[in-house]
Amino acid sequence: EADIYQTPRYLVIGTGKKITLECSQTMGHDKMYWYQQDPGMELHLIHYSYGVNSTEKGDLSSESTVSRIRTEHFPLTLESARPSHTSQYLCASSESGGGTYNEQFFGPGTRLTVL
Amino acid sequence: KNQVEQSPQSLIILEGKNCTLQCNYTVSPFSNLRWYKQDTGRGPVSLTIMTFSENTKSNGRYTATLDADTKQSSLHITASQLSDSASYICVVSDRGSTLGRLYFGRGTQLTVWP
């Protein structure tokens, strides 16, 4: 099982609150990713990072922001949560280079509900 | 446009039976194709990976096939178990970017009944 962790696993909050979803990996991977997944739908990439101090927006526009101050840590922040942010958020990581054919290891996800 | 289409959307089978899930893709240039299993409320876990030159790969009761000419893949599950109930996601990677972009299908929701 992959050593990538996400907290909290479930979060129910009110509109307008600021939240941070935590993601940590102990595999020393340079690349990390955040995906958003709605029920029955495909994963959409919202943020990624090549390494420390590197962050990029993904394919799906998101009002969230990310930071990468340490290799192992890639938190996602929503400054003001809205009901439209209700979704499952999955964090993943992978090694640099093509040796492992870009296998991404996923965390268990955070199920966010904004009331 | 790079896309991954899976069928069927959902499937119910009885324990002990076999089943086959399908994946068609248009991703180019192609790097590799993975099948992931995602249990409810969990992150996806890789089952198999195949590159352009591989046309079959097994992992226990799971056997994946790839036809790179027709851009089709299948995942065959033998002697299904209750624990096989999950979403099975086809994921295709391109080799046209340093990120190694992944393209996800919507998954096939498999339910195994006793």
Radius of gyration of chain A: 13 Å
Portion in strands of chain A: 35-45%
Helical fraction of chain B: under 10%
Tell me the total number of β-strands of chain B: 11
Following the backbone from N to C, one meets helices and strands of chain B in this order, namely EEEEEEEEEEE
How would a crystallographer describe the biggest sheet of chain A?
A: 7 strands, mixed
Q: Kindly report the average pLDDT value of chain B.
A: 92
Mean pLDDT across the residues of chain A is 91
How many H/I helices of chain A?
A: 0
Q: Name the helix and strand elements of chain A from N-terminus to C-terminus, one letter apiece.
A: EEEEEEEEEEE
Gyration radius from CA atoms of chain B, angstroms: 14 Å
Structural class category of chain A:
mainly beta
What is the number of helical segments of chain B per DSSP (H or I, 4+ residues)? 0
Runs of chain A in which pLDDT lies below 50 for 5 or more consecutive residues are: none
Q: Label the overall shape of chain B.
A: globular
List keywords for this structure.
heterodimer, A: 115 residues, mainly beta, seven-stranded mixed β-sheet, four-stranded antiparallel β-sheet, 11 strands, globular, B: 114 residues, five-stranded antiparallel β-sheet
Task: Note down, in words, how this protein is organized.
The complex is a heterodimer of chains A (115) and B (114). By secondary structure, chain A is mostly beta strands. Chain A is built from no helices and 11 strands. In chain A, strands 2, 4, 5, 6, 9, 10 and 11 form a 7-stranded mixed sheet that branches. In chain A, strands 1-3-8-7 form a 4-stranded antiparallel sheet, with no helix packed on it. The termini of chain A are far apart. In chain B, strands 2, 4, 5, 9, 10 and 11 form a 6-stranded mixed sheet that branches. In chain B, strands 1-3-8-7-6 form a 5-stranded antiparallel sheet, with no helix packed on it. The termini of chain B are far apart. Classes of the chains: A mainly beta (115), B mainly beta (114). At the A-B interface, strand 9 of A face strand 4 and strand 5 of B.
